[in-house]
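User: For a benchmark we're assembling, each entry needs the component sequences followed by a predicted structure for the full assembly. Here are entry 17's components. Please fill in the structure.
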Amino acid sequence: MNQLVSLQLKNVSRSFGEVDVLRRISLEISRGEFVAVVGPSGCGKTTLLNLLSGYDRPTSGTIESSGRRRMIYQQDGLFPWLTVNENIGLGLRQLHGEREREGAVTDLLRLIRLEGFERHYPHQLSGGMRQRVELARALAGESDILLMDEPFSALDYLTRMQMRRELARILAERPRTVVLVTHDIEEAAQLADRVVVLSERPAQIRDQLRIAAPRPRNLTDDEVVQAIHRILTVLGIEHEPERATEMERTL
Amino acid sequence: MKWKAIVLPIVVAAALLAVWAGVWATGAFHESAFPSPLAVARGFGEEMRSGRLLNDSITSLFRVVCGFLLAVGVGVPGGLWLGQVLAARLAFLPIINFFRNLSPLAWMPFAILWFGVGDAASIFLIFLSVFFPIVLSTMAAVANIPAVYFRVAEDYGLHGRERLTQVTLPAIMPQVITTLRVTAGLAWLVVVAAEMIAGRDGLGFAVMDSRNGLRTDLLVTAMIAIGLIGIVIDRVLVQLTKIPSVRWGYDR
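Assistant: Structure for entry 17:
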């Protein structure tokens, strides 16, 4: 596999018994690229992520990856019995030397702007703060690939918007290859370099679009709005503009 | 708020004492069947001076601690095993449910036949009464650990023993502590019953002995001691819920 490639899927299929969940998916994700995977609910997005993380194996096809993979989960994946410090420390287990680890934790806390919360437990933090700690833990210890499973779906609307901004800022400081699985199309359009649209089960790649605009992007930027429209059109939820203007005329 | 928590219980206790004294003053019961508060206070003093109340309390507490620790020592590991291994659960759950529903007091005759009258019989009965609830509750707690914790453990390289001590045990700790509080209360109930029949000392024996000697004042003294020590046991165990790493299980 080429050095510039982080993850490579060739003709990957996954079925559970009789049920085909993924069908012949081929995808190449470059080092440092941010790829969002969107699709109808239940289409196998999480299955795809489980394959990418190595937790699950494909029924056929091959998956290659280079670098340390870290997963960020939908539900609270922080250990509630550990402090913020200790949770982040989990990501640094391979670092030897107390000093080195402490320094790394301090840097990460500064990065996620939670200095002063190192001794707090997760249940003492807000949802957004917890998700930032989760991010810090996944970034810790020279991870290369972040796999995110609807990481902001449990947050309220405004916090979710802020977290997108935070993620863009944090990735600018600590570049990583990111695969974000989400049902939130705005999120995909606002964050990703490339959006992969999956079909209904068995999931196949329906469309891919690149969004070249630099991050952070506003939700109302032209490129973002256009991308949202295109994704929704591919999913059959929005219709082509001509018909829209026609409708406007009739109104 | 703070003063209410102190004053209100005192008012209730005083009212209860007044009712007690009132009923006694009507003379509806014979003195030997219904002691006055004053007689109980004198009996209490007598028991304290002779040292018997203290000895009986220590004896009963010793038995409870032994039986309880034994049950925790076997029950928590047992529950961990049952919670993790489906085949073990299938095999043992029916029999555990059988014994759980069998009053430990039904074992009393065997306890005396096997261990004689004394510490061992009471410890055996206490063990039987708390072992099954501890096993079942630990098992349920393990089975209810969210799967995501084990995924995270895997991601960050926690396997085997590390997974047990750093994920499974801390994840069940809040529920285990709650179970310890409930079962410690149960053990304290059982020790009195056990000592009434299978003891030659202890607070349960003191109850029985007072009845046989028609000393209802000493009977009430023993009852008061039993109630107060029960409260103290729970107050001690409630401290466990204040450990920072288990607070998450209670602050909701």
